[in-house]
C-alpha cells in the first residue's frame, strides 16, 4: 500500500461531507447578516471604554482554565453548585466536550445500549456534525409551533438530550417555554433510568 492510498482520518470523518460555511459578505457591504451570531449593531461605547481600560498584562496570560471566580459568581446568581458548571471557549466547545465524553456509536457499544444524541429538529446543525465526527447515533425528534416534544425526547432515552429552539438556541426569546418544560424532562428522564 502506498501512502497516497491511505487516509489519515478515521472512517467516520472520511464518510462525512465537508462543512460549507455561510456566505461572508465583503467588508463594507451594506447588509445585516445574523446567520453566524453576528450583531448588526456596533459594541456599546461603555463596553469599548471597559475594553480600553483592561490591563494589557492580563491579555498576555492564559486565563484560569477552571474559571473558578466566574463559576462561583454564576453559582451564587443561579443557586447551583459551582462544580456543576463547565466553562469553555464558546458554546461550540462545550457541545464538543459533551458529545465526545458521553456519546458512542455502534462500533463502540459492544452490544450495550447505544449512547445516542437526542435533539429536537429543526435545531443547531452542529449537534449533527459533532455526532457524526464522534461517531454517535442521533435521534432527531421533529417539532413545530415552538412546542417541545418533551415526552418524545424523554422516550428516546439518549446519553445526551439537547433542548434548543431553531437557530436561536443561545437567546432568551423562548426561555419561558424552555423553563416550563425542563421539569417535565428532568422527571421523565429519571423515570426512564
Comma- or semicolon-separated keywords:
6% strand, 193 residues, disordered C terminus, single chain
Rg of Cα set = 21 Å
Summed over residues and divided by their number, the pLDDT gives a mean of 76
Percent of sequence in beta strands: 5-15%
**First-to-last CA distance:** 48 Å
Main sheet makeup: 3 strands, parallel
Low-pLDDT segments = 165-177, 187-193
In short:
The chain has 193 residues and is mainly alpha-helical. It has helices at 11-14, 45-53, 56-59, 68-78, 91-102, 106-109, 126-133, 150-155, 175-192, and strands at residues 117-121, 138-142, 160-161.
Written description of the protein model:
The chain has 193 residues and is mainly α. Among the domains are: 45-87, no CATH class; 102-192, no CATH class. The chain has nine helices and three strands; from the N terminus they run ααααααβαβαβα. A three-stranded parallel β-sheet has the order 2-1-3. Helix 5 crosses helix 7 (126-133). The protein is globular, with a radius of gyration of 21 Å. The N and C termini lie far apart (48 Å). The model is unreliable at 165-177 and 187-193 (pLDDT under 50).
